[in-house]
Amino acid sequence: MSRSYTKGKRAVQEAETRQRIVEAALALHGEIGPSATTISMIAERAGVQRHTVYAHLPDDRAIFLACSSLHAERDALPSPDQWAATNDPETRLRQALAALYGWFARNEQLVAAVLRDAEDNATLREISDLRFGQPLGAIFASLSDGLSHTQQAALGLALSFHTWRTLVRSAGLATAAAVDLMVRTVDAGDRSVVPEPEDLARSMR
After folding, report:
1. Does residue 86 share a domain with residue 185?
2. Shared domain check, 180 and 93
3. Is residue 159 helix, strand or coil?
4. What percent of the chain has pLDDT over 90?
5. Which of 102, 10, 100, 22 shows the shortest CA–CA distance to 62?
6. Burial (CB count <10 Å: 0-12, 13-18, 19+), residue 45
7. Cβ-based neighbours of 94, under 8 Å, separated by 6 or more
8. How would residue 8 be classed by pLDDT, with cut points 50, 70 and 90?
9. For residue 88, what are the domain limits?
10. Number of domains in the chain
11. Which region holds residue 79: left if phi is over 0, alpha if psi is between -120 and 50, else beta?
12. Whether 88 and 187 share a structural domain
């Protein structure tokens, strides 16, 4: 057996081991949150020893980067390219919110855990801003042109995970109703008013 073949096989095995470790860590982050996830838990879930985890992911920053990268590969945040060809601002906003709210729904447990833990974990907050903040900033930029300051504030509210969760999970709105309410809220920002209570009540039915 040639040395190059042996080295190639070892490299494949190392890559497979690293993949198992990252998948284990990502799964635990979604189940119990990044802060509660320990190296021992990752090692047990991946079927390896603790020192093997450290060999591939030596610290929290490496773990968070690897997990967020894997998650982005599997289900990245919506790209402004999806609605770039739409000229009508309201239609563009509806398309963007529908795509974003769909992403929130698919990734609710993980996103909630990461945002919660990032409040007290500077390293996680850094990686969260990198993976979530930049794409959300691009989405905001793609929708904010021509909006007043108040409308831009309303747009920021509409793009928030916490807003989506309040409307859909707490208030029980369907996604389409949540999108409609936020579109009308952004539009109303130019007039410094909010939707009438009866409009909100109808949306919640």
Report:
1. yes
2. yes
3. coil
4. 85
5. 22
6. middle
7. 179, 180, 183
8. confident
9. 76-203
10. 2
11. beta
12. yes
* Cα–Cα separations (whole angstroms), residue 165 to 15, 195, 199: 37, 19, 19
CB count in 10 Å sphere of residue 88: 9
Whole-number pLDDT of residue 10: 82
Cβ 125 vs Cβ 65: under 8 Å: no
Task: Round the CA-based radius of gyration of the chain to a whole number and report it.
Answer: 21
pLDDT in tens, 61-101: 999 999 999 999 999 999 999 999 999 999 999 999 999 99
Yes or no: say if 57 and 50 are a contact pair by the CB < 8 Å rule: no
Dig out the tokens for 180 from the structure.
């409609």
How far lies 46's CA from each of 16, 41, 70, in Å? 11, 8, 15
Q: Give the DSSP letter of residue 81.
A: G
